[in-house]
Amino acid sequence: MTEYQDEKTNKDLPQVSDLTASWGLRISDNRGFSGNLNFSYTGEQRITYPQDMQKGGFTVANLSLSQKIADIGKFGDLTLRGEVRNLLDKQYAYVEGYPMPGRSFYLGLRYTY
C-alpha cells in the first residue's frame, strides 16, 4: 500500500501501518544450492475498532533453501526446496483479532525443462 490516508476524511487509515520495510540475504554456490533469509517489518498501527488503541510493530523472518538434485540434460532438472515461514514463531496479526499462522514448514520438488 502506498496510501495511508482516507481520501474523503483525510485521516489515517485504521489498521494500516505508516512504516513497512523488508530486507534479506540471498546466497548461491553456482552448483545448484541457494538460500534466502528474509525479514519483513510492519510498524505500529492505530486500531479504531472495537476500541481506539495503538498496536505495536512486529518483524517476521522467513527462510528458504533449495538444492538441484538431478540434471537430466535436455529433459530438464529437479530441485528440492524447503521453506520455514515465520521462522522465529512470532505471534502477530496484520488485523487485530485475526492472528497469522505460527511457524510453518513447506517442502517441495520442482521439475524444470
Task: Tell me about this structure.
With 113 residues, the chain is an all-beta fold. It has a single domain, classed as Outer membrane efflux proteins (OEP). The chain is 0% helix and 50% strand. The strands form two sheets. The chain has a five-stranded antiparallel β-sheet, with no helix packed on it. A two-stranded antiparallel ribbon has the order 3-4. A hairpin with a 5-residue loop joins strand 5 and strand 6. It is elongated and about 60 Å long.
Task: Write a brief structural summary.
A five-stranded antiparallel beta sheet has the order 1-2-5-6-7, with no helix packed on it.
How are the SSEs ordered, and which strands pair?
Layout: E1 20-28, E2 33-42, E3 45-47, E4 53-55, E5 58-71, E6 77-85, E7 104-112
Antiparallel strand pairs: 1-2, 2-5, 3-4, 5-6, 6-7
Order of helices and strands: EEEEEEE
Q: Give the low-confidence spans.
A: none
Provide the domain count: 1
- Strand arrangement, major sheet: 1-2-5-6-7
Shape designation: elongated
N- to C-terminal distance: 36 Å
Report Rg. 20 Å
Q: What is the mean predicted local confidence, pLDDT? A: 90
Any idea of the CATH topology?
Outer membrane efflux proteins (OEP)
CATH level-two architecture: Single Sheet
The DSSP helix count reads: 0
Class based on secondary structure composition and strand pairing: mainly beta
Query: CATH class, anyone?
Result: Mainly Beta
Largest sheet: 5 strands, antiparallel
Number of strands: 7
The helix content, as a percent range, equals: under 10%
Strand content: over 45%
